[in-house]
Amino acid sequence: MHCACYNNLDHLPTMVHHALEHEELFSRRCILVNGPVIVGAGPSGLSVGAGLHQQGVPFVILDRADCIASLWQNKTYDRLKLHLPKQFCQLPYFPFPPNFPEYPSKNQFIDYLETYAKKFEISPRFNESVQSAKYDETCGLWRVRTVTYNCEIEYICRWLVVATGENAEKVVPVFEGLEEFDGTVMHACDYRSGEPFGGKRVLVVGCGNSGMEVSLDLCHHNAFPSMVMRSSVHILPREIGGKSTFELATSLLKWLPIKVVDKILLVLARYTLGNLEKYGIKRPSKGPLHLKNIKGKTPVLDIGALQKIKSGKIQIVPGIKKFSRGRVELVNGENLEIDSVILATGYCSNVPSWLKDDGMFSKDGLPIRPFPEGWKGKAGVYSVGFTGRGLSGASLDAIKVAQDIGKIWNKETKQPNHYVTLSCDRKCNK
Fold first, then answer.
1. Among candidates 132, 130, 122, which has minimal Cα distance to 147?
2. Longest dimension (CA), the chain
3. Has residue 110 got a pLDDT over 60?
4. What are the residue ranges spanned by the domains of the chain?
């Protein structure tokens, strides 16, 4: 079957017609997009789509998964709740329902996102994995190549929005002897509940929010977790005096320097949580907000794991030296017998694997220019969801991106629509 593409080309550079004659362009199915291509159908991509929809700008959202917010739907544990109060997590133009709790559950947040997509008439193209995106200087357009059901598609567009986020791929460290270990080994993205681990000795590698909450969940299912704490970590109470710690910090930062706010938070944390060093928990020398800004390391907001640590139900252990059959040797020489390993070792960006030669992203897949300047690059490329500031940071960037594209698009399309039909040679074998 031949593939036809129908799009308004009025606002595209006239040189595109010469590019369309190029043989390579017709080696696959081609779709001209009269607006931006957004890569990623998570909260970041949906936020940009909503902003564009309100301005009448057409767009295409691509996602390799089969649903919106696949990280939330397919790679999070059942007990997960938003770490911050809902007012800091809602997407642009649409608040959470008033009957939602202060910290919505995973399923409530997914329902909210589904409703959000319907409200703004967002229909992503699922099961399309972006293989490459490159700016074609000859015609001044982006060429985004995808694979879906054994069919190659190339999208041609004026703007590209990178919304795959900081957590696109799981990070799996290499440990000596892990291949010899005969128990269950999984990344936290595959962990749903502690129920299968009841009565088991589980080593949780990682002491961030995921590691803490997985360990807590294991306790609730009568497992025996040991949590690897290789380095120092800031642990703060989720609330202080009935008020969100994040909200308190945000308010203080309006009036005080970050170093002063850090000192206030640490004093309050010490008063609320006590001295944690006797439990094997060391605090970094730099304050929690300062460390977050310079290294992107998020402080842990405690929701109950600390009490389990103090009672001994979660054991804190140092770094790993090597694994062997049924056990792990720690850097202090101690050996632990374990049944399972859960790697709460985080995620990373996958942008360098598909975005070619743009000059906007570092080799780690994060914008080179720091927040709040990293949302816009050259030649019509944008980024959303890479601020290190969660959903609130993504929303701020999404609003800027949608407004910037909308301003240009509406200015250049105030003329009658004319459509062209392009036939592409390659057949799609589904």
1. 130
2. 75
3. yes
4. 29-168+349-412, 170-347
